Amino acid sequence: MIPPHAGGYEGTVQPGSPVPSLGVYAKKKGWPRGEQEHAAIIRYQVDTAVGKVVKTLRSMGVEDNTLIVFSSDNGPHDEGKHSYKFFDSAGPLKGYKRSLYEGGIRVPMIMKWPGKIKSKSKTKEPVAFWDMLPTLAKAGGSTDLPSTIDGVDVSPVFSGKSLKKRPLYWEFCTNKKWGHAIRVGNMKLVSLALNKPYELYNVVSDPGEKKNLAKKKPNIVKHLAKLAKAEHKDHPMWPKKNCHTS
């Protein structure tokens, strides 16, 4: 499936395109054209495509033996003709796509696996996309995985169990500087320049990252900063002097 993507669909709703018309959203008064297109591509391309996948699995008789994972690779974007504020897409979270704050990196993940995952069950256990390789491998019966991968098998959460506390690390170019963030348990450290100044948040009690606790909890800042430094690896393909956001 081709997801709705900034620059990939704005102004392209026409015959022959993935979304041939605005459908019901053409009648939405007060909606800018870009927002009509955004809603249309989600409904008529993403929702419809997911339905086709499920229907196909059902027709093949393998729906109950298939793990379906649906998620996004980043938070809502704010580009082209679409504003993430129009639908309040980030909700209470701070930031959006290309941000190290929760609005840029925290997204819902829906998993369906009849008999393995209880219907309508929920978990707030934080997982990451790099966990999908070991999780899907385990689901498929494989245990032959490299020892160097960062992800872990998250299937214990299917039965309501918790995962071992571990660092979750992100790195991105923000405002023409490499920044990074690291979360361990409830606490998350953010630096927009790979070093000081640091911001510290309890993203469980404060998911909107409004209360910077860095000055109140210097020992936690020091500990997480040390972990973040260990997670970072310089690489010639991503030089610090050539930071961009494309």
Task: Fill in the keyword field for this structure.
4 helices, alpha+beta, two-stranded antiparallel ribbon, 22% helix, 6 strands, 246 residues, Arylsulfatase, C-terminal domain
Can you offer a commentary on this structure?
The protein has 246 residues and is of the alpha+beta class. 22% of the residues lie in helices and 13% in strands. The chain has a four-stranded antiparallel β-sheet with strand order 3-4-5-6, covered by helices on one side. A two-stranded antiparallel sheet has the order 1-2. It has a domain at 165-246: Arylsulfatase, C-terminal domain. It is globular.
* Oligomerization category of the chains in this entry: single chain
Question: How many beta-strand segments?
Answer: 6
The residue-averaged pLDDT reads: 88
Distance between the termini: 22 Å
Number of helices: 4
CATH domain fold name of the domain at 165-246: Arylsulfatase, C-terminal domain
Report the uncertain regions: 6-11
N-to-C series of helices and strands: HEHEHEEEEH
List the helices and strands and how they pair.
Blueprint: H1 33-59, E1 68-71, H2 102-105, E2 109-112, H3 132-139, E3 168-174, E4 177-184, E5 187-191, E6 199-202, H4 218-231
Antiparallel strand pairs: 1-2, 3-4, 4-5, 5-6
In brief:
The protein contains 4 helices and 6 strands; from the N terminus they run αβαβαββββα. It has 246 residues and is of the alpha+beta class.
